[in-house]
Amino acid sequence: MSKFANLRKPDTHAHEILEMMIRSGRTYSNESLAAEIVEAFGEDSTFHTCSGHGLDPYDIVQHLWGKGKFTGNPEAFVFLPASRCNH
After folding, report:
1. Cα(10)–Cα(69) distance, rounded to whole angstroms?
2. Could you report the per-residue pLDDT of 31-76, keeping only the tens digit for each?
3. How many helices (H) and strands (E) in the chain?
């Protein structure tokens, strides 16, 4: 094992965040979702999608908005299941 292995950040696909949102059944704000992501995955976690990599918990929320994954507004939204990609 590399002596640098402990410096690597976990990298998680955004699908894990969307599944977390479905399981919770909650309505989120940008701030509450970012806080829950930090709680669930850790402050140092990074996230990726098919079109974005190395996103922190706050950037992934904005990225998912840009991809049309949520319905509502930044203060009250849920995951839009119809926007789920099938891969």
Report:
1. 23
2. 999 999 999 999 889 999 988 899 999 999 999 999 999 999 999 9
3. 3, 4
Q: What is the CATH number of the domain that holds 53?
A: 1.10.10
Cα–Cα distance for residue pair 79/47, rounded to 1 Å: 17
Fill in the amino acid letter for 25. Answer: G
Q: Is residue 27 part of a domain?
A: yes
pLDDT at 84: 77
| φ, ψ at 43 (rounded to 5°) | -60, -35
Residue type, 52: G
**What's the rounded mean pLDDT across residues 12-20?**
94
Instruction: Using CA atoms of 22, 19, 73, 28 in order, give the dihedral in degrees to the nearest 10.
Output: 70
